[in-house]
What we know:
Blueprint: H1 11-21, H2 27-41, H3 54-65, H4 70-78, H5 81-84, H6 89-96, H7 98-107, H8 118-135, H9 138-152, H10 160-180, H11 184-198, H12 200-234, E1 240-245, H13 248-258, E2 269-275, H14 278-291, E3 293-294, E4 300-301, E5 314-319, E6 325-332, H15 333-346, H16 360-371, H17 375-386, E7 390-394, E8 400-404, H18 409-416, H19 418-423, E9 424-429, E10 432-434, E11 444-450, H20 467-497, H21 506-516, H22 521-529, H23 535-542, E12 562-564, E13 573-575, E14 587-591, E15 597-601, E16 614-620, E17 627-636, H24 641-651, E18 655-665, E19 668-677, H25 680-692, E20 696-701
Helix pairs in contact: 1-2, 2-4, 3-4, 3-9, 4-7, 4-9, 6-7, 7-8, 7-9, 8-16, 8-17, 9-10, 9-11, 10-11, 11-12, 12-13, 16-17, 16-20, 17-20, 18-20, 20-22, 21-23
Amino acid sequence: MPPFRAQMLRQYELVERVLAYDPDADEAMLNRAYVYTVQKHGTQKRASGDPYFSHPVEVAGLMTELKLDQDTIITALLHDTVEDTLATVDEIERLFGPDVARLVDGVTKLSKIETMSESERAAENLRKFLLAMSEDLRVLLVKLADRMHNMRTLHYIKSEEKRRRIARETMDIYAPLAERVGMYEYMREMQLLAFEQLEPEAYATITGRLAAIRSEEGAQVDAIALEIKQALAEAGLRVEVSGREKHPYSIWRKMAERHVSFEQITDIMAFRVLTDNEDDCYKALGILHREWQMIPGRFKDYISTPKMNGYRSLHTALIYSNAMRVEVQIKTHEMHERNEFGLAAHWAYKQGGTPDGQVGWLRDLIEILESSHDAEELLENTKMAIYQDRIFAFTPKGALFQLPKGATPIDFAFAVHTKLGAQAVGAKINGRHVPLRTPLGNGDVVEIIKSRTSEPQLSWLGFVVTGKARAAIRRFVRQKERAEVAAIGRKLYEEIVERLPTKIGKKALNDALKRLKLAGEEDFMFAIGSAKLDDRQVMEALVPGSAANIPEENWPSQKRAIAVRGLTPGMAFKLADCCHPVPGDRIVGLRRPGKGVEVHAIDCMKLADGVDADWIDLSWDARTDGAIGRLRAELYNRPGTLAEMAGIFAKNHANVVNLEMTQRENPFHTYEVDLEVRDLAHLTRIISALRASEAVAQAERI
C-alpha cells in the first residue's frame, strides 16, 4: 500500500506533475481549478481534521500517477464542489468548459433525499454514475480515485456503523469495478482496507501470520525467486523475478471457500516473472514446467484469451521442494504495466486522444440499469454483473463470450443479444442437446435454438446467474403481468359500467382519471385489475354519487363471467396449487390488492380462506388449451406396475410434470402425479384408464 503523505500536494507540485507528461497542458487553467476548489470548500473540514480541499487535491494527485489528461485532473479537483458547496454545473461549464462540467456532473452524487432508504440512495447514486460512465470512462477513474482516498482515511470516521457501511459498499461495488477495468492495484488496496473494517479479527490474524512468515521465511522468498531466475537465465532468457505473500483478503476468501485454516493454505507465496516479449513468456512457462511439477487444473492462458478487462498473463502453480506450492504469473513488462492500471493505462494521456468508455461489459451494465425495477434489484443485478469468476464460451461461429462460473445457456443467449435470450427454447453444448439450466464449462461451444413465438419464462430466474439475464427476464415478466392485470381490469370495468345509471363516454373516463390522479387509461385498468380500486370507487369516479345510495347488502353482483385464457403461473392469473383447476372445471378468481388473481375450482375447500378477497366469476376462454391436473393412484406392489401406469399416461398423450411416492404400505404404493392435460375430459379419460388397469387398485383426482 502506498505510504500516506505527511502533507497535502501543493499547487505547483500538482501542475509540475501534469506538465511532466503533458507539456501542452493549460497551466493557467490547472492553477485556476486548484484555487477554485480551495475557495469553494473554504473552511470545511474532514473527519481527520484536515481542510476538506485536501481530499480533491489528493484525488487529483492519484490521477497524475495514471498520467491522465488535463480535463480529468481538473474534474478530480472539482468533483465534490457541486455536491458540497454552492458551486453549480453551469458555473463550472462557464469557467472550465463543457467537457469538465459533464465529467463533474457524472461523478457528483445525487443530493440525499431524506425519504429514500439507504439502499435507494445507493442505487440512485449508482444509476447516475453508471450512465455517466457509459459516456466517458474517465468518470469511473475519478470515482475510483475518490473512493480510494476516502478508504485510506476511513479510520478517522468515529462511527463504526458508517465505516462498515462505506467498507461494504466499497467491497460490493467499487473494488469489483476496479477489477473489471483491470485496475488491480486499486482493487487490492480497496479490498484490504474494506477487509480491515468488515472482518477486523480475521484481518489482524492473517496480517499477523503473514508478518511472521515474512520475518521467518523472508529469505526463502528471495531464494525461490533467485532459483527461478537462474533456471530461466540458463535457458537464455532475460527476466525479472519478484516474490511476495498472497493478498490477505484473497487468503481469507480461500479459507472461507475451502473451509480450511491458515495453516492448511499451501500456496501463500506468489511470484511474478517479467519478460521482454510474448514469445519469452511461453518459453519461460515450458522451462518452469520442466524444472518443477505443475499442479493440474491451475494453468490459465490469459495471453491468447485475455480477460474482459484486457488483463493478459500466463498463470501456473508449481510444487516446489518439500511439497511447497507456489503460484507464478508470467507476463511482459508492457503487460504488467497495463495489468496494474488496466483501462486507465490504455486511456492515459495521449496527444489528441479521448477515453472511450464503450466496452462490452459496461454496455451490459447499462442494459441492467434500464431493466431494473427498484433499488434492491439494481444493486443485486449490478453486483452479479461485476463481481464473479469467469469462464469462456464460444458461439458456433467462434465468437468468444466471458460469463460467470455457473452460467447457463440462457445466460449465454442474453450475453449474445437480449432478443436471442428472449426467444431461446433449447440449446446444444458441443453439439449435444442439453437442458437450459445446464452449467457451461470453459471452452464450450454453445448453440442456442430459438423460436419467434417463444418468451422468457419466470422459472428461468431459478437458475440464471448473470445480472443481464435476470434483469431482462424480470422486465419481461413485469410487462406481461401488467398487461394481463390490465386486461382483467378492462373486463371488470366493462362489467361495472353496465351497472351505472347512464351511458359512459370518453369524457367521463377522462374526468375519472383526473379525479383518481392517474396518468392514463392503462393505469386505470391496471388499478382495477390489481384491486387497488374497488367497484364503488370506480363508479364514483365515473359518475359521482352513483354508488352512494346502494346499501352494502344490496350491492349488485357480477353479471357475467370473465373469460380467461393463456394462464401463466406467477403472472396475473395463477392456477391454485390446492385444487389444480383445468379447462372444463367451473372456476372462480380471488383478487387481492397487489397480487395476481388466484384461480380455484368452484368446489375447492380452500375457497373459504378467500373471504377477505374480491371474488371474480371466471370462465375458460374457448381457445384455452392445457393446464396441470393432479391425481392420486394406488398401485399394487409388484414389478412393472409403475411402468404400466407410465404407459397409460403416454398412450393418452399426457406429460408427467411431477411424480412423488406419498405412501408405502404393502401391498400398495401410493403416488401423487401432476400431469399436463388439455381439459377436464382428457383428465377424466386418464383416470378411467387407470381404474381399468390391473396394476392400479384405485385412482382419483385431487
